[in-house]
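Homework-ish question, so no full write-ups if that breaks the rules, but can someone show me the predicted structure for this set?
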Amino acid sequence: MKRLGSNNRYEDSYQILLANREDELETKIGTGPPKMPLILDGIAVVVGKHVLLGNKTNTDLIGGRYFNKCYPVIVGGKLNSSFDTPQDNDGHGTHILSTDGGNSIANTSGFGGLLWSGQVKIQDLLMVLSLTLLHDRSQLEPAPWLWSFLAKLSSTTIKKMRGLQLPLSQTQRIRLQRAFEKLQSLSSKANSDASVTVADTIPVNYEDAFLKGHGTTDLNGELVATVCGVVERINKLVYVRGLRARYKPEVGDIVVGRVVEVAQKRWRLEINFSQDAVLMLSSMNMPDGIQRRRTALDELNMRGIFEENDVVCAEVRNFQHDGSLQLQARSQKYGKLEKGQLLIVDPYLVKKSKSHFHHLEHFGIDLILGRNGFIWVGEHVETRDSMAVDQANSSEQSMVLEEKNQTHTPLEMRQNICRTANAVRVLSTLGFSMDADLIMETVELSSSLKIDIHDMLGSEFHVLVAEREAERRSLMGKRRR
Amino acid sequence: MVGLSVGEKHFIQGGISQDLRLDCRKRLTYRPIYVETGIIPQAHGSARVRLGATDVIASVKAELGKPNALQPDKGKIAIFVDCSPTAAPMFEGRGGEELSTELSVALERCILGGKSGAGAGIDPTSLVVVEGKVCWDLYVDGLVISSDGNLLDALAAAIKAALSNTGIPKVDVAAEMTGDEQPEVNISDEEFLQFDTSGIPVIVTLTKVGKQYIVDATSEEESQMTSAVSVSVNRKGHLINKLDSEIAAAEASEEE
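A: Not a homework solution, just the prediction itself:
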């Protein structure tokens, strides 16, 4: 299981659930009385008409303690002790039953039923989906419909969660919709409805030769999506980019990461990838700048360079044979990042460009767009020429460090940092690609309209930015013609 | 919670001392609060409160029970908070239990008053149906779905909203029974009684970072705090309880 950085531990379970691995489950469970089947991290699992609730889900939902009140009412008399608590191991415990106790909901029985209506109302809050299904094994039910139902339910949940969590007034909603429609019509992609859920067919011209990429599979001669996401087409490659996709690194990418471990001759960094990236001690410039072999003393002093939880900027050097990443930070522009804040956006919003380091002279701040979605906004740091550093200077630096502990960033620079950070947050909420120019324009828009820094996160500014972007792109399109 | 580097911590503290926090709020500004009520149709009352990335749900269930022999004219109210593992990795398994207990106890003291019942937000005598025999048991459950600081304020707001949304079914008591027999009660499906929530307090937590106090701290700011004070105030302006708490154990700062 992931340690730090794993912000959704149910993501892996979702992927398994959505990948239709029911055959695997069927063989595991067999035909006898169902033992507690795979508990996919608290999500209920269904195979055919076997029961299935992860007993971990029950205590997380409200009202788990009323189960034992309802059962005797319906059946009359107590049953075995496993019914006394929602936390039994037979999969009988159902919080649904319990919140249901005392109320009546159509199409349910004392053993639970398919509570479509009840669950739909709260589906936009639950990360843990738990369904109670008909327990009666004498009824024959095919499993596939259930898989696609679960997939649809979870994908609608995902879609709702991705929706803007902003309170928009009626006019703002209309303006935003119009801006998005304009942007979509200007988009160069041919497909207007590019988002797919599991088991949706991908619209492809089957006469053309095309390559099936990640997230797709061939089912009955049709190209079908296996994850919920957006269809991307690059030349002949057709793939589905998942909504919660992790960063996909390429050699030479600039990334910003956080040190999670100081290990033997290396640091481990968390970069929103499936594994932690490794920064070797030998890939790092020594503080005194001399190129030499790393001795045991250097190894012991690794914490003097980077400690746990430090934010570091580096470049992807290569992939190891086991798929993990190796980084290097040999140039002066890489290294520890201090005096600023780290923002996290989706990795696909940061596209590869000529330069990821931006020094906004007007504000005196540094903006580093890591391709893994970690964006650093902070005070400008002069890149020092390491060759000129010697013993005298190093003592000077330690004095500077002490001073730093007392002085803070000046207020004006801090305001600029905050404004830029809010601009990044707004663009990330709206789903626009991160581009230094776009960020600068957003900041200028906010200052020209005299919008208070805190109001930048309000709905009005979001709508303004969307409209501005739609205008800008239509102008660019006209200029090209 | 993800760790913070020394530089970032310094930046946060600097921001607070200069009255410009990470998301550009002032020290005494709350994040935008979103409240939805009636989200759980099976419960008698429910509400969800979102405070930035903090997301909590409260629900109220009422069922008929027998009053305590020592207090036959009062109903029973129980408040319980659960920190879901989805909120933070450290809540996995039993990790969230300590925080849950602390929040539950704090909320019980604020809303139900002290041992003698003084300063209670809800009047338990309004919950009795037949004195000594039948009363309403109120179970208030709080669930923390996502945690980004300031859980106590969010939970108190959610509970207040959930209670205002609660409808206790009307009960018709059958003919008088003598002695110890349980009276027959008929719970109405149609009519509901609204709850009087004017006495329920609101909790405001002030966290101290460096030499200043801030309101509505995010989890990053909470990691930098030295102590916190939570105050619950009701409509009449009475300070019901002052709770001193050190929600996250931070090292005590050296005296400058």
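Now go work out the reasoning yourself. Hint: The first strand of chain B starts at residue 33 and ends at 37.
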